[in-house]
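User: I'm putting together a teaching handout on how multi-component assemblies are represented. Below are the sequence lines for each component of a complex, exactly as they appear in our records. Could you produce the 3D structure of the whole assembly as structure tokens, so the students can see both representations side by side? Please keep the chain order the same as the input.
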Amino acid sequence: MSPVLSVRNLAKSFGGIKAVQDVNFDVGKGEFLALIGPNGAGKTTCFNMLNGYLKPNTGSVKLNGKELLGTPPRKIWRLGVGRTFQITETFLSMTVLENIQMALISYHRRVFDLFSRATRLYVDEAMALLDLVNMSEQAQRACSELAYGDLKRLELAIALAHEPALLLMDEPTAGMAPSERIALMALTAEIVEREGVSVVFTEHDMDVVFAHSHRILVLNRGELIAEGTGEEIRANATVQEVYLGGGTLFEEELAHA
Amino acid sequence: MGFYFAQLLTGLANASSLFLIASGLSIIFGVTRIVNFAHGSFYMVGAYLAYTLVTTLNAGIFGFWFSVIAAALIVGVVGLLIELTILRRIYRAPELFQLVATFGVVLIFQDGTLAIWGAEDLLGPRAPGLDRAVRIMGEPIPEYDLALICIGPAVLLGIWLLFHKTRWGVLVRAATQDREMVAALGVNQAWLFSAAFVLGAFLAGLGGALQIPREAASLQMDLSIIGEAFVVVVIGGMGSVTGAFVAAVLISVLNAFAILIFPQISIVLPFIVMAVVLIVRPYGLFGKPGSEHGGTEEPDQPLRLMSNQASMILFAAVAMLALSPVVVAEFTTILLVDVMVATLFAVSLHFMMGIGGMVSFGHAAYFGVGAYAAALSVKLLGFSMIPAMIFGPIAAAAAALFFGWFCVRLSGVYLAMLTMAAAQILWGVTFQWQDFTGGDDGILGVWPAKWASSDQVYFYIAFVLCIGGIWFLRRVAHSPFGYTLRGIRDSKTRAEAIGVDTKFHQWMGFTLAGALAGLAGVIFAFSKGSVFPDSLGIAQSIDGLIMVLLGGIHALAGPIFGAVAFVMIEDWVTRLEYWRFIFGGIILVVVLLAPDGIAGGVQRLLRAVMPTKKGDAA
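Assistant: Of course. Below is the structure of the complete assembly, with chains in the same order as your input.
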């Protein structure tokens, strides 16, 4: 089966610093892929090249055979890539439901409609999406009143609105309590499995990474140093070396997982 | 050669006083994020005070310089009083709301100055000891100009030392970069804000006082300098004192030479320079991206459709308005047309600012273009009323399309300043291009068609167009287009991430607001039978801004409340002596009572009244 996303020879340097060099990977349909690495490894740089915010020096990123590089973020979205942000980005002056309706309005290319009532459009579809993330009871609440964990779930629902082939999630659990993290990722995994979406996410929390990802890529100093399932990565000597220089913390993390 | 050198020196001398006022404005904005319209008033009062002190003391060199410093200090104290009594109470109000208060202060100062010093221009004596001219390369240069050329950099050095060598200065610079962080570090913000405001007022007063030997103190000083001072602050970068100095020199020297080639240009030159600088460097020469935003703001509440009760009240009000010409006197009918025109204008500005998040200090540009396009089409093309009424908004939309393309590339106060530059450029062209626009004399004889010439019939034309326009914009606010604009205002990143072309969308929103402002202008032109450059002047833009902010920027009904209140109160007070004083006072009272605008105040009032009613029923 051909991959949903294929990344080839991706490289980016800032001045003399090679932030990302020669990264290659594929994401299969329905695959849940984690991109991990210590701080400064190039995760965010890599991510921002996938979603169009940063232009790489070389390489290619293809979504179902279509080149994404050089495409502005809004067009990448239209090609079928949904995304969530490390710090949530939502429309705070709208209700929860309206936030989803906005994504649907844009998806159905009606942002220039001057006469319809925005709040009456795509209500059922929007409610169905809220149901997916178990937030239908909060549909009418102002987005500005939500707890942070709920904002994260709302973002997930927004990202799913245009039935994307691929979800990009940048540190989806950053800023959340440990129990919330697990719950959010379990929910994500469940939805992803049901809808057949592929996911690429970056993450610092190893519990989350090992619990849900099908495959893990480890970046260090801009290079891919390891790739494999949770088991394989845990056993990988290079990864242990890189992460903690043989320290003990990683062992503890492993014990947790 | 000598002549050009003399011209350069004149430019540099002008730069010094411009720098003094602009640096104060920049410091105040940097620390408190207040766009201080009263800064020109500080400058004016500084000049008048210095005049009085110099002529009363009449004590030679020492007396002169003592008077200048004393005048500046008094202005500093006045600034402190304003900060303590008014501004301190409204720092938590929505962004830019404080601007309304400073505008109230402008009005009060205008009449206060008139009451104390009278309407005559007052020309001070020459500075003792510096009252002659020296010959440099054969050209006579006033000694006082040379002194000014030294004073500018000296003050810059003084501020630099203050900001880099004292703890207070470091705090000021820190607050300019990140106000929240400074507050989080436990710095007493109230004290810091007051001090910054006093320093800014002192510098403005000093600038005014130093002008005394060069220029007569007059009641027009405040508004004539404020536009230019804003330009200098923006070119330099908001909050940057060094930037203000460089920009002041740039503008003044360019101006000194440009008037040799094209004398008419001096009115628009600063604004052209500002437009060019902002297009190339969106945050000014020395500004940084972070410096455009103030503290975090409460997000808007979600829009709700009107309740049945509110719809009924609105319907009744509109019906009453529709019937009014039958009942009320003729002059009231004319006043009501003014109210409707102002309301449509304010609603179109609110659409841009409140919904689109694009603050405009130059919305009158499109009002004026609409009015002039209609008038010119009548005069030059022989259009009758209806085609001219269609042509006006189209021309306004075209102008908004042109200037909007540049404006939507910026954000925050910089965007606002670019809209002001656009309006000032249009105003300057209209004012100077006598052959085409009639210049200051305007265009007369733009009357409605015969069938519409009675005040009552014209009232209904205005009624249909204004209410129609307001209804249309309200409808758009609730439409996907309006929601998308609000979405972009809330989060550009999210809007982009759901496939919205944010710049293009804002551009279209800008254009739509311009078209509707143009419609208001057209109705205005035919109701008055004439158009003058004032209709696209800065005062008209500020009026609109005050209506929107005073009404309450967070509510769709805000601009309606604001415009109705503004026009009605203005109509009433202008019959009185010292009406500016009274008007300014009223504005300050509203500002202090309702920091969330009239709409917010009314809502709070209703909420306070409603529960008791329910209680009674139960």
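A couple of points students might notice: The radius of gyration of chain A is 19 Å. Chain A has a mean pLDDT of 86.
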